[in-house]
Each structure stands twice: as C-alpha cells, then as structure tokens.
Amino acid sequence: MTEPSVRFRHRGPRMHTTARHIDPMSDAAIAATVTPEPIEAVGARLGIPADALYRYGPHKAKLSLDFIREIEDRPTGKLILVTAISPTPAGEGKTTTTIGLGDALNRIGAKTAVCLREPSLGPCFGAKGGATGGGRAQIVPMQDINLHFTGDLHAIGAAHNLLSALIDNHIYWGNALDIDTRRIAWKRVVDLNDRALRSIVVGLGGPANGFPREDGFDITVASEVMAIFCLAKSLEELEDRLSQMVVAQTRAKGIVRAEALKGIGSMVALLRDAFQPNLVQTMEHTPAFVHGGPFANIAHGCNSVIATRSALRLADYVVTEAGFGADLGAEKFLDIKCRQAGLAPAASVVVATVRALKMHGGVGLKDLVKEDAGAVVLGAANLRRHVENMQKFGIPVVVALNRFLSDTPAEVDAVRGVLADLGVNVHVCSHWAEGGAGAEALAEEVKMLAARPSQFRTLYPDAMPLAGKIETIAREIYRAGDVALSPDAARRLTELEAAGFGDLPVCMAKTQYSFSADPKLRNAPTGHTIPVREVRLSAGAGFVVALTGDVMTMPGLPSVPAAEHIFVDADGVIGGLS
Amino acid sequence: MTEPSVRFRHRGPRMHTTARHIDPMSDAAIAATVTPEPIEAVGARLGIPADALYRYGPHKAKLSLDFIREIEDRPTGKLILVTAISPTPAGEGKTTTTIGLGDALNRIGAKTAVCLREPSLGPCFGAKGGATGGGRAQIVPMQDINLHFTGDLHAIGAAHNLLSALIDNHIYWGNALDIDTRRIAWKRVVDLNDRALRSIVVGLGGPANGFPREDGFDITVASEVMAIFCLAKSLEELEDRLSQMVVAQTRAKGIVRAEALKGIGSMVALLRDAFQPNLVQTMEHTPAFVHGGPFANIAHGCNSVIATRSALRLADYVVTEAGFGADLGAEKFLDIKCRQAGLAPAASVVVATVRALKMHGGVGLKDLVKEDAGAVVLGAANLRRHVENMQKFGIPVVVALNRFLSDTPAEVDAVRGVLADLGVNVHVCSHWAEGGAGAEALAEEVKMLAARPSQFRTLYPDAMPLAGKIETIAREIYRAGDVALSPDAARRLTELEAAGFGDLPVCMAKTQYSFSADPKLRNAPTGHTIPVREVRLSAGAGFVVALTGDVMTMPGLPSVPAAEHIFVDADGVIGGLS
Predict the structure, then answer these.
(1) How many degrees, rounded to 5, is the angle at CA B347 between CA B345 and CA B353?
(2) Residue A375 bears catalytic tag
(3) Does A573 touch chain B (CB under 8 A)?
(4) Cα–Cα distance between B170 and B246 in angstroms, integer?
(5) pTM for the full model?
(6) Is pLDDT of B19 > 60?
(7) Percentage of residues of chain B with pLDDT beyond 90
(8) What's the pLDDT score for residue B549?
(9) Assign residue A454 a region: left if phi > 0, alpha if psi is -120 to 50, beta otherwise?
C-alpha cells in the first residue's frame, strides 16, 4: 500500500460545515428527541407480519404486494379526510393535523394509521421546505423522507423520461408512427425546481442528435405517471393505465398512445418496487403510509390509492389529507380518487387558524398578533363555505383550529359563532406543541362522527357532460356566477366527448389561494367568472384537466433557496431541512 | 365503501404481459436458480456486524460510514485488478472473470471480496444491457442491481442537477458572480440514453423562465459528481472536492467554483446515504461491493475508492475490474485511482477470448467459429501488448482465456506461444458455465503472484508537465509515434499549469476499440499519431481530461432498444433484462 499522493488539494477538516449546527428549535431537532421504533414493531401495530415488510434501513419499509393481495377481502376501517381553508401566508397546518389526529386517535384507543403524500425534492430545496409535519406532529425519519426516501420519485422520473427518450428515438429511427413533432404532449421531468427547463429546444447539434423540436421539463410530481401511480389499485392496472396515456398526435391528428412506443413493460419494471406503499411512523409511533404525491392542480393531489386501500384493511381509522384548500383538494379527493377507487370518507376535518381567518378578513401579515374578533368573523366566511361544501358531499365535518399563542378566547368564540347554525363543532388543537395529547377532543368527535352511516355522494354523476361537470364544480364549490370556456376549450370538450372520454371526472387546475381564479381574491367571493382557457386529457389517469389560468408545472427557486441552508454536520447528521 | 365506478377503462388481466415469460436460458433465469443468503450472512463472511449494515430488503445493504471509520487502521488485503484486451464485438467477459475469480479464490480458501461498478439505467434500456455478469458468474439480485439498486445514481443525478438549477437561478436573480452564460461548463444529467438532450437551448419562453442559453445533458455516469464520488475517501473529502469543481467562467474569464453557488451542503446531504458502499453477493455468496461507476473515457471508469478501501480492510483478496481495455481502464485505474487513493495492486489478470483475438487477427464475426490458429497468433499481438503494459507498472500478470465451445487446443496453444517469453501464464477459464469451479487454476496462480512483494509504480511522476504525461501515456501504452496537440489544447495545458493544476494526472478520453485514436484500427498498431483536440479540467475529481476524438457523454438508443423486451410477469418478476 503506497501513501496517497496529494493530487487533490484537500483543504482541511470539513471547512464548509464546521460552523453548521442543527438548530435546537428546528423540526429536525424536535424529531430527534424521540427514538423511532423498529419498523417491524410499527407494522405489528397493524398486524403486518415482518416478512411482508421490505426494509429500507431500520425505520422505513415497503409493504409487499403479495401481502396487499392477501388482505384484499378484509373489512375496511373508517376513512377520515383532513382538508383546509384556502391557504394564506399565515399558515394552516393540514399535515400536522393529519398526524396529530392520527396520534390522538391511537391515544384514545382507536387503531389508526395515517396516509400522507411523499415529499418532492424540488420544494425541499426551494421555498416551501419539507412535507413531514412540524413540532411534535411529525413523521420520522424526517430527513430520509424529505430527501430520497425509498426512491419512489426517482423511479417515477426514470419511467417518465424513458418514455420521453423512446419518443424521440422513435422519430430518429424513421418515425413509423408519423408523430407530429409539433404536437408531442409528453414532456420530460426532473424532481427539482428548475425554471430554465420549462421551455427548451431539444435535438440540436446536427443529424446525430435527432430532430430539433420544442420541449420542456415539468417537476416529477406533475407527471401523469405520478397521477396514475396514485390511482392504480394493482400493478396490472398501473400497466394498463400507462399504456393508455396519450403522448402525441400524428400528422393526421390521430392520437399516439404510450403503448405504441413499446416501453410500457420497462416502465412497469422501473415502477414495480416503488408501487409498494411505504410505511414509516409518527413521533408517537402511529403507523404512517407515505406514498405518492401528485400535483394538486393538474392532478388530484392525494397519496396513492394502494396505500389508502391497504391502510383501510389494516386499521380501524385511516386519517389522510388532500392538497391545497378544500375547494381543490377535497373536491378532487372525493370526485376523482374516491370515485375511481371506491372509497367513501366517514368524516372530514377542515383545518383553519385564527391567524389565517384574520388574513381572509383583511388583516395584514404583520398585524396578525393583535386581537381582532371582527376580522375573524369576516374571514370565517371562507371557513364556513368550505364546511358547507363538505356537507354537500354528505360527509360529517368538524373544524380543527390550530392554536397559536396569539389566539384569544374572543377570536375562537367568533369562529364558533360563524359555524353555529351549521351544526359543526370547533376544536382548538395543540398537537404541534403537545403531540397527540393536544388533539384528543378532536379525535373523540371524529370517532363519533365516523360512527354515523355514510351519506357520501360525489358532486356529479359520471354521465354528466364534461362542460356540465365544470359548471357544477364552479357553481356549487367555487360559488362562481359563470364559467367562460375559451373557444379552444369548448371545442376540445366536444372532441373529447366524441372520442368517448365524456364520462371521465374533471380535474380543475385553479389557484389554491381563492375560490375564484384570481389568487388575490381572498375570503369568500361570489359571482365571479371561472375562465377555462385550456382542456387536457389525462387518459391514463382517467380525468380531464380544465385549466383556469397559468398553471405552474415547474416551479422556480427563490433568490435565497432553502438549498443554501442544508448541510451534513460533523456527525453525518443532515441539518437545515424544514 | 362504494364500488369503484368504471372511470378508467381497465382492459382486462395484464394484457401486456400474458405472453411474456422469463427465458429459461437468460441470465435472469440462471441467477434465479440460486437462493441468495441473507445479506447479514454475506457480511458475516467478512466479519461485518449486522448493525453496520443498512439493509435494502433482504439481499442488499449499505456499509455504514461509522464502521468504515472503525476499520480504517486495519491491515489491508491484496488488490487484484482484472482488465482486458481491446474490446471487440466477439466479447471478452471482464465482469464475469472478476466474479468467477472471486468465487474461485473463496473456493480455494482465500477470504475474498469483489468490487464492481454499479450499472447505469441508460445502457440497460439501450443496446448493452445490464452489468452484473452472466451465466454462473453473476452478482445478485441482478434485476435490482441493474435497475434502481440502492438509488446511488439517482442521488448523484439529483445532486448534479441541483447545482445546475442553482447556476441558472443565480443568473436569474441578478448574476452577482457575473457568470458568462456562453461559458458554463456544468451541464445537466439524466440516467438514460437520450440523444435528443445532447444539445439543447434552455431558458426559453420569456423573462419568467430565465435567460436563454445553450446547454445539454450528459448521462449521469459522466457527471464529475460521479467521478468525485468514486475518488473521495470520506464524506468530508467528498464535500471538499465538490466545492472545488469549476462550473463556469465569468465575463472576465475568471473561474467560478461550485462552492460559489452555495449548494454544496445540499449536494452532500443528497449524497450522504449513497456514499456508503453497497454490499451484495455473487451466485456463490462471495461478498460483492458494487458502488459507483464513472464513465471510462472522460473519467477513470472504476468503482468507488471507499468501496475498494473498505473491502481491502475486510478481505484478504479483493478482485476488482477497470473499464474498457487495459490501455484505458487499467492505465487510469493505476495512474489516477491508485495514485489518488494510495492503492497498489498485487497482481493483474488480462482477460481475452480466442474469438476476440481472432477478430484482432482479421477474422470477421461470422467466421469466428472456424479454427484459425494463425489468426490467433496475429491477433494475440493485442493481448501481448496489454500484458507488456501491465508489466511496465511493475504488476505481475496472468492471462484468463474465457472458454467458448468453438475454441480448439491449437488456438489456445497459439495464445500461450505468443506470451511464452514474457513469463506469463494463460489459464482457460469456464466460470461462465461452471461458476468459481471453472476458475480455480487462475485463482491459484493469482494467489501465488500476489504473494510477491509489490513492485507497483505509476507510469509518470506528479511533477511531470501535463503535455509530458500525455506523451508518456501515448508512447508507453498506446505505442504512438506522435502526439498532435491542437493549438487550443496546447494553450489550455499551459493555462492549467500556470493556474497550478500541472501536477494532476491526465485522464485520456480515447476510443476503447484501438490502441490508436481510430476505432477501426484493431490489434496492435504502432507509429500512429494521437490527436489531442481539447483539454478539460476536472478540478474536483483531480485530473485533466485530454480528448482525442469525439467523446460521447450521452449515448443514444438503438432502433430496437432493450427497453422493448423488459417486462414484469404475472408473478411480479422482472424479465427481459440481460
């Protein structure tokens, strides 16, 4: 053995991280105060045998598809949906409430699992941060889950991009399918926020590199592969849905389905392991299935059907959340996911904060610490409407008010007052600070509500024409006065119905910040017009997307991205993730 | 629970795979004939405690960095390098020989581990197929290793692309570093063969998407992050090397290092788990470290230093391979990896086949089954030169002749005759058909050779000027008559020396198919000119790349890619991987 020569100028011990310490108030530090149970012990709480768990280290596992087939015929538990008011910069805490409620249900003796979406790397390094809850209501190991986790998003990205490569390769080798290179809908994906890739030209540099054409990258979670991954009930259905995706048009305007590119088997091979639901735990050892995470605008924004269905066969209560506010997240959860997967929620929780209601009531971010019950009454109109909407689906509702130190009794009473005539209770929750103990009253009520027979109904029947579905959502949920279909959109809806896609549900791509299509219009606007500029078919996911404005499918990074603050300390611990 | 409505047109049971069965003669089927041991049992053969293994399912694990630090001061075993003649379409079997020799050494009682590169998805779906050996000389589980394995390549890709996104984001938010958008060396990567991404324009679509500029994608294994990943001895060194990468020039021609983009901590966080060496096993349960896999043209083409160094502290013999033929792979292994990591191989095996030597001797692919000892004598000049080259490094050599049924005794004798005066033995090996039992004679000789005191020396000293290093490699290894530096390359070498990079080793990017720069010139050409068109600095990897021709850093797919034949069967088993 020779001594290494100093070819590489090593500049001494960890010069980039010496000054980096884990902030003791950070979520990472709080999460580190508990010792996670071995994942087999977590699975055992749900009666999962150890050999049904495919381990990724001591605290993460995938649930085998064989075991999922075995439990298929078991009776199912109660599904609880956690949704929220229209989001504001004041914060609501939907994920923490999902986790806190799960922990609280277990505390009061109800065998409960939670089902969450898995985080994307893009927001982690951007402005939003991670997606594993906060305070004492977190899932762990938070660093692992926020970074690569078990590799699902990478698998989805690889499957997506393999199809992209096969499309250009097909064109390169003669284009037997006669794909119109101006009409390729299938873009490429990367699991990062990277605005420079939104609009690109590929195939430059001469004949060896193919035919130049316009293209672009979406973030991986916006891929239709992700939407399908989260709706398929089996590997077989996953394959069939992937085959049916429409990726391009021919010169003669015929559709080109993904299966024509002959790579579906490879895509399924890439997705096989990822398709197994991931099992982790909350800080209080409640089993948590964290699996899949489609965009909530151009897709349905909830975790995988296979995770939710599996959890329902293993636990008496399954608490899950839907993306964005209830007008988007819950509506899609109910009209798309539940419709397609045969699920029926037994109860729903609408999450709000006094602070956020004050913002809806017109108070600025800096003034939120001042008591203002009047503003709360005003802004609670937003909450009230979301509650009414949930009731339209026939689901019992309770409101969870995530406590902040600045909240006053008068403000909390104001919220209660606004909802009194709806027969809906408000529970002040403190699971962020106290874990499941801070959400026990909420858990008791959820248990009680869920005991009632299900009255769940979707908002519209399959048979309603597509334009009618859009109008129904706009009037019933958004309280719009009108829907303005662009000529393009109207023509496309007619085309889709003629092509036999008329009985699909509609996936609305609308701003999450308002019931209207204008993100600045907070609270509870009425009489607005919902413009539908464009309509897209997600033939494999099984829905028609109606775009009401600029839809971002590739976020950008802020001027000081979170990536600047993440580090590995001298002990190999990852810090700076929030 | 409601019944799912038939929103998605499921077209019946697994219509895409019913006709798909695993070929019983395929490598996958042969691999499936053995039951792998639990990975803890494999680790125990090397004295690795179970708690030093981070499991990915029952048959894959990562070795903890804490444990690697613990064993740092242990005495080291003998390092055996497996290299090969210049490749031809007839095939050589370098990876199978590495595996077969490892198994054979264990059979004769020598505690042995093998160290291999991990496969890239691109070639798996392209023309080349997987990289886990073949026949009875395979590492398992072959499907897992060939597909996502433990996610290392995805982690490297994410770390690379995060830096790419940070560069464009920096420019977007004001470009305080004054990066010249025409001179950004840092491209993007994807782990697929996708020629359409070789040359692209990004940042189109208006101000919100940034500044349009030329860009391109390399395959992930061509990333400097991969090269660094495979040369760093610790996480700390990994971070330091990443920081030092040169990613762009400023308008004033100053260099912009990666650390200026402030994302190094995040890159290390993304790479932390991946950096732990992967442990799997051969079909005969020999421990196999399969970790890292840089390109063998613009990088050094061997598995990670951290895997090799760890294996040497756990086993008495470590068998490893280097990419391409010995003129490229072994030279870089010795002059770059061994130089930087302080390694000294105790013996080397040069792999050849009678078939391939006949091709070097001028026989066409279709005529290889006909006996032609004369052609073997002619073509063995290629083998002889590679053997002589290994001897120049002071390393004992033995030749492994991978047996094919068409080989005749006269042909094998011809090979022996050509090498007789060099004092090098030739062993006919049949590990492909018989596993380790087919390479025992080779193993005995390797053990004997490795017992001699090391005479290893690098080809050139650090202090030699860069142009001198290129000339030394060209004359000593390639037997060129001359080196023709382009004016650009000559100027760049001078610049690099002035900037203090003169003592770095040189990484030659040359065709693997010939000692010359002309891929059509088989066998043992002399007197040729090695053109150096371009010189690139890999400041983090710690070498200077000399490009002698068109270098492909993003492969394309063939007209019928392997992706068309891969599938998941009705039992969830992946087939069609080769």
Answers:
(1) 125
(2) no
(3) no
(4) 16
(5) 0.96
(6) no
(7) 92
(8) 85
(9) beta
pLDDT at residue B16 greater than cutoff 60: no
Give the A window 420-459 contacts with B, CB below 8 Å: 456
Architecture of domain A27-150+274-450: 3-Layer(aba) Sandwich (3.40)
From B567, B562, B578, B433, select the one nearest B142 (Cα to Cα): B578
CB A136 within 8 A of CB A149: no
Joined together, the tokens standing for residue A277 give 């639901």
**Extended beta strands in A85-235, E state:** 112-116, 133-134, 137-140, 179-184, 188-190, 200-202, 213-215, 217-219
Which pLDDT does position A291 carry in this prediction? 98
Separation between Cα atoms, residue A451 and residue A478, nearest integer Å: 29
Q: Amino acid identity, residue A562?
A: A
- Which H, E and C letters describe B36-96, residue by residue? CCCHHHHHHCCCCCHHHEEEECCCCEEECHHHHHHCCCCCCCEEEEEEECCCCCCCCCHHH
Q: Is B224 annotated as a binding residue?
A: no
Nearest to A557 among B165, B504, B577 (CB): B165
Lowest mean pLDDT among A19-33, A251-265, A480-494: A19-33
Q: Is the pLDDT of residue A403 over 50?
A: yes
Is the per-residue pLDDT at A400 higher than 50? yes
Which pLDDT does position A91 carry in this prediction?
85
Name which of B15, B241, B261, B266 to mutate to probe chain A: the one with the most chain A Cβ atoms within 10 A of its Cβ.
Answer: B266
Answer yes or no: A222 catalytic.
Answer: no
Nearest to B209 by CA among A221, A555, A120, A223: A555
Residues of chain B with CATH 3.10.410.10: 466-548
Nearest-5° Cα angle at A513, A510 to A514:
75
What would the mean pLDDT of B113-117 be, rounded to a whole number?
A: 98
Residue with tokens 């470590």: B318
CB B94 within 8 A of CB B543: no
Model pLDDT, residue B48: 98
Domain A466-548 has CATH 3.10.410.10: yes
Residue A446 has pLDDT above 80, yes or no: yes
Q: What is the pLDDT of residues A224-247, one digit of tens each?
A: 999 999 999 999 999 999 999 999
- Residue B286: CB partners within 8 Å, gap ≥ 6? B99, B102, B103, B106, B112, B113, B114, B436
Surface of B (488-547) touching A: CB under 8 A: 503-505, 542-543
Residues of A in contact with B270 (CB under 8 A): 121, 147-148
Touching check for B207 and chain A: CB below 8 Å? no
* DSSP 8-state code for residue B366: G
| Closest residue in chain B to residue A6, using alpha carbons only | B340
Please check the confidence at residue A10 and state whether its pLDDT lies above 70.
Answer: no
Range(s) of chain B covered by CATH 3.30.1510.10: 155-270
CATH number listed for the domain at residues B155-270 = 3.30.1510.10
Q: Do B273 and A155 touch (CB under 8 A)?
A: no
Q: Return mean pLDDT, chain A.
A: 94
Residue A29 confidence (pLDDT) above 80: yes
Is B250 one of the annotated binding-site residues? no
Residue A217, classified by CB atoms within 10 Å of its CB into exposed (0-12), middle (13-18) or buried (19+), is: buried
Contact A239 B155 (CB under 8 A): no
The β-bridge partners of A303 are none
- Complex ipTM > 0.90: yes
Task: For B202-244, give the DSSP string.
Answer: ES-SSGGG---EEE-EEEGGGSHHHHHHTT-SSHHHHHHHHHH
Q: Residue A45: which residues within 8 A CB-CB, separation 6 or more?
A: A111, A285, A287
Q: Tell me: pLDDT of B18 over 60.
A: no
Alpha helices per DSSP H over A45-90: 65-70
Q: In chain B, which residues fall in CATH 3.40.50.300?
A: 27-150+274-450
**For residue B7, pLDDT beyond 90:** no
